[in-house]
User: Fold this.
Amino acid sequence: MDVNLFLPCAAGVEGFLSDEVQRITGLPASELQAGRGGVALRGTWRNALQLNLHSRLAQRVLVRLAHQPYRDEHDVYRVAQSVAWEIWFTPNETLKVEITAQHSPLKSLNFAALRVKDAICDRLRDKRGARPSIDTAWPDVRVFAHLTKEDVTLYIDTSGEPLFKRGWREDKGDAPLKETLAAAMIAATGWTGWDEEGRPVPLYDPCCGSGTVLIEAALLALNIAPGKLRRFGFEKLMPYQAHVWQSLKQQAQAAEKALPAGQAPFIFGSDVAFRMVDFARRNAEQAGVAHAIELRGGDALQRMPPTATPGVMLLNPPYGERIAAAGVAGQRADQRARAGKPMGRETAQLAEGGENTDFFAQLASHWKKHYSGWSAWLLTPDLQLPGQMRFKASRRVPMWNGPIECRLFRFDLIAGSARTTPAAPPNDA
Ligand SMILES: C[S@@+](CC[C@H](N)C(=O)[O-])C[C@H]1O[C@@H](n2cnc3c(N)ncnc32)[C@H](O)[C@@H]1O
Assistant:
């Protein structure tokens, strides 16, 4: 069965997702369109299942069922009623309709969503003799409607829970990255786990929190399908055939890579908060990759390289008040606070990057001294970070962490600091 698929992703990730979709489906680039916020392709139902199982970057896999011009709610109803919903699900399944819009002339999006829901229920009553119930919390079937100025597009979702939920996370920590964003960071670095000769390339996150970057890295290096542990929305849809799905899962399992005999872990994580290190350890065990990851407690300002072979550092460091730097830099802030500086002001300084500035200056000098040969990639909403570290970024990849615009900066830590600069580099707007 041929279908029009759309895979939404975070802004900035479209190019990486397009490459990933080609790798997973084997489709040529000419079959794919990477637009703002996602990738569209003409594929098969089997492709939809493969993409759910293997995509590390997509937020969902949607099947596009209608794309028509509209002027008012009556048109929206007519377009929704013309779709053959009866070949996708029965009235026994519960339904949820979600709507998004860009420059839609309609006054009430809620009302438009209601019209879509009515049209689907009316169509199923006519064709199958009953209306499905609505369940906004745990629906069996999700329909997405998107309105632009002129067109309405309707999708049926095949993923269910969004794909960043891999099924391994038990412990969240304070500010976990979404798994899909961690995977996008890894894609941007080009790290795959192995060099051209098949030797492992170390990866280290010195502010690892709940371990998202490390676990995504290990899943990639070991070729473990990110959707292996979870259920999907397509299991409730009529085209679903359990034996096709089982065989895709078996193929994925057969393609998993074991660590070579005697190979020590080459993915490393540490965090100043021991509680976080425990979270990361439990999460790695749940994900089945604990054997590839070595975790320690410790301050990033003091930790020495975890391995003699230089590799890639990849992190989203503490930022702002809520997740301010702890450890040595944090203690200094506490001491100053105890010495009489009002806490409110201290907190305000943190929020503006006050103590964090200290943290990053110290981190930079620690890395210059001890991490020669490593490349460090940092995701941050702070566009002034290279200036604070007195580093010159060799790459700046725009990425969105939810609604927050960020950059993934790359710094090459070269002996003698040829790539560092005493002056703050220009802002990279
Ligand atoms: C933004 S969070 C990282 C979240 C992580 N990527 C995840 O997905 O869970 C920043 C982390 O840096 C840690 N941290 C703060 N100061 C630190 C320091 N001086 N050394 C090492 N880790 C530190 C915090 O405990 C927190 O877990």
